[in-house]
Amino acid sequence: MNLSDINALVTGGSSGIGKATAQSITEAGGKVVIAARNKEKLKASAAEIGAIPIQCDVRKENEVIDLVEETTKQLDNYNVLINNAGYGTFSRLVNLSATDLESQLRTNTIGAMMVARETARYFIQQSYGNIINVSSSAGKKGFEGGTAYVASKFALSGMTECWRSELRPHNIRVMQINPSEVQTEFSENAGRGSRAFNETKLIAEDIGQTIVSMLALPDRGFITETSVWATNPK
Fold it and tell me: Cα–Cα–Cα angle for 129, 66, 4, nearest 5°?
């Protein structure tokens, strides 16, 4: 698609990959609504990158419904969803509570489903749209301590395949991106503490640029899935 024609909703758009993706879109001439829970941080990020802020907690169905409805009002031709909202918690199986697992799934999986569901209804009506789910290398391979996060991302991958099958007849491209470690607030938010910047590892802008490149492919084709890894991290 022509990048200047992008009218996108980016969830988890106030920081990290979401914010970087929204900025890449606005810099390419597109328009963006960013959604997140923290109102003040959301407004500050929107002002910085030239986006429209809409507060939303994707765990809450009524807020998701309102989010997509308001997005269709704010954007003349809503045509791109970047399903990015998510977080990670990590612990060994023997220490993992059902509550922690349920909470992880509620945001990363069920939240993504609800935003995609409301969006797909709109995209089907106009017979066009693009959905990109931001998964993770953790959605391709498990690791020690990753039960909750890995489960949420494996589930997202499975849903992506289902949506792709259902929505292709409506000219809706459903794609997925799997970043390896990206230097954002993710680690700190996961309770692992902040880490010193490492110039050999990925940054959020790398993923934002990749997402825009996926959208840039002419509409007659699409990249179903791509993974992004640091070349030689140290």
Answer: 35
Given the DSSP bridges, would you call strands 31-36 and 80-83 parallel, antiparallel or unpaired? unpaired
Nearest alpha carbon to residue 203 among 179, 226, 219: 179
Catalytic, 149? Answer: yes
Q: CB count, 10 Å around CB of 5?
A: 14
Q: What is the pLDDT of residues 110-155, one digit of tens each?
A: 999 999 999 999 999 999 999 999 999 999 999 999 999 999 999 9
Domain boundaries, the chain: 3-228
Q: Which two tokens stand for residue 131?
A: 């959905």
- Select from 145, 118, 115 the least CA-distant residue to 36: 115
Q: Are strands 80-83 and 129-134 parallel, antiparallel or unpaired?
A: parallel
Kind and range of the H or E run holding 213: helix 204-216
Which pLDDT tens digit goes with each residue over 177-187?
A: 999 999 987 66
**Extended beta strands in the chain, E state:** 7-11, 31-36, 52-55, 80-83, 129-134, 172-179, 182-183, 202-203, 225-228
The CATH number of the domain covering residues in 3-228: 3.40.50.720
